[in-house]
Amino acid sequence: MKIAEIEVIPVRMPLKAVLTLPKGASRSLDEGKRVALVKMTADDGTVGWGESGPSRRWSAETLESCVTSLRQYLAPAVIGHDAFDIAGLHAKMDTEIAPGLDPGQPVAKNAIDIACHDMICRRLGIPLQSWLGRKALDHVKLARLISAPDPDAAAKMTAEAAAAGYEGMKVKVGHDPHHDAAIMKAVVGAAGTAFVWPDANQGFTLSEALTFSRLIEPLGITLFEQPVAMNDIYAMKKLLSAVPMTVALDEATIGIPFVIELLRREAIEGVAIKINKMGGLFYARQMCDLARNAGLALIGSGLMDAPIGFAASTHLYAGYGIDLPVDLNGPQFIGETYLADPFPMQGQRALVPDTPGLGITIDEDKVAFFAKALADADGTLV
């Protein structure tokens, strides 16, 4: 089965809320959730879908860079390629856009990778999780992302999330250690039995991260995500020896070469997996295997994923048995999507689809509607 055609479709979906990071709002309500969909068709007519979902205040890629790279370099490079040769697929993409410490524009490459996996599994008539060769769980628990300006607002948001059945609360920090610690106290007090952890998105200096850690230690927090800058290896190593919590790295785990260097320097003890940032399932699986074999903690995360990325992540995280709640917060923020049918859920647990491929059905009329919404807002991406 060879790749015969690749269509790149930039779309804009409406948002129902805005996510605020230490660097500012990830996007505005007017901007919406913008992704580049990829529709991959094989020479036998089998179709697979993928997507690039960049977050420009989280990493360097944008929707514009993803669309240009996909259309001009990545898609042409893999036309005619044997879809079952996924390593060769990435080799061809890497020839066009070179990898560095990360896979080289991984968010753009992610769309090709997921579409190819979806197409293969549809051709074989198996769910993606079966292709991965791991079936540890049949679901993943979802975490509610808590991003609030003050403790009262954080407590209210947390109580509502707990009542809605969320089993985890991921709290955005990285501003002022004392203010953030007060927010953490409010969240823990309102969370009930839900698992709570902070994520600074590189927002703290070493001194601030140490201060914050000491302030929240009485709360019984056991996990701290990406406290300091991803390139500050000294700070990461210092934190590991100074705080009782497990420090899990997200932005720093951009690629396997850098994670191996962090292992050599004894500066890592946990990995946050994001399929988007790793260039797709091919490298995300390798990162999961590396983490498991190195004895690192493994947690699941996302980039406000639309349904394709959400589905791929659900298959992967459940396959690897990630039982802590995962930050797949797309449903929390995205108002409408391109799915023909809702994603299978059980309360606030995402169920692993048991139908072929990603296990979701794309409504191409909705795709066309959201593509027009983007064209009307920004006529440069058509």
Automatic annotation (TrEMBL):
Pfam families documented for this protein: MR_MLE_C (PF13378), MR_MLE_N (PF02746)
SUPFAM superfamilies for this protein: Enolase C-terminal domain-like, Enolase N-terminal domain-like
Key words, A-Z: Isomerase, Metal-binding
Membrane-crossing residue ranges in chain numbering: none
Ranges for domain Mandelate racemase/muconate lactonizing enzyme C-terminal: 151-246
Domain of life: Bacteria
InterPro entries membership: Enolase-like_C_sf, Enolase-like_N, Enolase_C-like, Mandelate_racemase_C, Mandelate_racemase_N_dom
UniProt family annotation: Belongs to the mandelate racemase/muconate lactonizing enzyme family.
PANTHER family per UniProt: O-SUCCINYLBENZOATE SYNTHASE (PTHR48073:SF2), O-SUCCINYLBENZOATE SYNTHASE-RELATED (PTHR48073)
Protein name: Mandelate racemase/muconate lactonizing enzyme family protein
